[in-house]
Amino acid sequence: MVKNEKRLPLQKSFKSSSYFTVGRNLMSPLRALDTHVEDARTSKNSVLENEASTNAPYSGQFECETGNYHTFCPISCVSWLYQKIEDSFFLVIGTKTCGYFLQNALGVMIFAEPRYAMAELEESDISAQLNDYKELKRLCLQIKQDRNPSVIVWIGTCTTEIIKMDLEGMAPALEAEINIPIVVARANGLDYAFTQGEDTVLAAMAQKCPERSKNVNLLETTPNNISTASNTSNTKFSKVEEKSLNKELVLFGSLPSTIANQLQFELKRQGINVSGWLPSARYSDLPALGEDVYVCGINPFLSRTATSLMRRRKCKLISAPFPIGPDGTRAWVEKICSVFGIVPTGLEEREKTIWANLTESINFIKGKSVFFMGDNLLEISLARFLIRCGMTVYEIGIPYMDKRFQAGELALLEKTCIEMKVPFPRIVEKPDNYYQIQRIKELKPDLVITGMAHANPLEARGITTKWSVELTFSQIHGFGNAKDLIELICKPLRRNKNLEKNKMFSHSTTFAQ
Ligand code: SF4
User: Fold this and answer.
1) What are 10-66's pLDDT values in tens digits?
2) 9-66+356-498 CATH, one of 2.60.120.620, 3.40.640.10, 3.40.50.1980, 3.40.50.720
């Protein structure tokens, strides 16, 4: 890793600013940089034998501020996963605090009632006066009787961590007794980012996927499962299709089915068939995993799932950028094609057309600046997209980053900066919000993308903000959603521009009166 010489003038102003003065007390930025170099080297040697990646680590400035985490609780993942896994039931094992959080923060959960419940721990549970196994069995039998789901997901909260409740030990015995599979996921407030709740559930679910039998000749066994342009006749395959059919591809990450279908369609256009998704809409459709299966993620916060798939299920990880924005989607498809030995066709034109459709919005945000405080782990992908749109990214705050899993995205970020002739933005892991506020004051970005806690205080100080959580829940993947993505960024800027106009108008009318 080399220190980026081509810093913005902004970086010079940083050096003379309070940033380095205050930062010195905690950890010198250079020392922080060294630590990360070490991390990257040691971790690279340790795990990645299964990874189909040749990406180098980030060449820009990477720092760690050891600030506090300010995340929304990851048990909120229940709110979108119950929709995705249609025949599931989520049992959140926690205290009243968790129950209040789910009820208040996710008022919409009332619609999930048939598919989610709280197992509230009382004083007697915590002091081990009750038998946990018996209590959970009673609840699970009731769930079976009332809802009969095909899988029960136990979400272990902070309290189960603190009292060391052995959920993993109880689940196998209980699932054998009640005859319903139980997935144990410890998605709790001890995590770095709320999106990691989904990561934890998927990593646990990966263990429940069936084993793919070895030496399966897909050409002989599954032509009807995999629909390609040529298998309408069910007999002949082109050479390209034969090549891709001999490799299986499983995508992981939870997306609405329409978006999942769009991404699948993009791959199908290149002759690549997706053999399954983790998670699948129905538990019984979980994909078979094994040594010969390639896996590729669609979101940057799924690093535990990726590790679990590589280490425990021996799958081969395709380390691609993420399909966010037209540039990311093209790079994602291209990377999968390269692993499958396919030369992609028509992607460049497709990307160009999508960019052309965004011209009006791009002209609006071009030259404006953005600052990521760090919240949902989508920051690198979003920053890369916004740099491509012509925005200046002052800082990418990110609560936590798995550099190996995000290697493809980091490489694309660098490539984008080089092509757009802009310096590499500074990435700050685990940012300290106090110092960030100082930097925001100095830099005066046009837009700050931040968690909900900071949005209103910043707005009150005249800084335009965007809730990062909106970007998490909006449909931003694939070519088809690029317009929605850019509009999410334009909206707060337009709104505040209009407010300013109205203010000026009211001032001038007051003056005229
Ligand atoms: S899991 Fe922990 S952080 Fe989340 S609501 Fe429960 S107590 Fe709070």
Assistant:
1) 444 433 333 332 333 333 333 333 333 333 333 433 334 455 544 557 888 899 998
2) 3.40.50.1980
Percentage helix, strand, coil for the chain under 3-state DSSP, each rounded to 5: 55, 15, 35
Q: Is the minimum distance from the CB of 188 to ligand 1 under 6 angstroms?
A: yes
pLDDT digits 0-9 by tens, 344-403:
999 999 999 999 999 999 999 999 999 999 999 999 999 999 999 999 999 999 999 999
CA distance 220 to 213: 14
Closest C-alpha to ligand 1, atom 5: 98
The answer, yes or no, to whether any atom of ligand 1 lies below 6 A from the CB of 101, is yes
In the chain, list all ranges with CATH 3.40.50.1980: 9-66+356-498, 74-190, 237-349
At a CB cut-off of 8 Å and minimum separation 6, what does 457 contact?
none
Query: Which residue type is seen at 101?
Result: F
Ligand 1: centre distance to CA 208 (Å): 26
pTM: 0.83
For residue 75 and ligand 1, the question of a CB distance below 6 A is answered with yes
Fold of 74-190: Rossmann fold (3.40.50)
CATH code linked to domain 237-349:
3.40.50.1980
Q: Which residues pair with 296 in a beta bridge?
A: 251
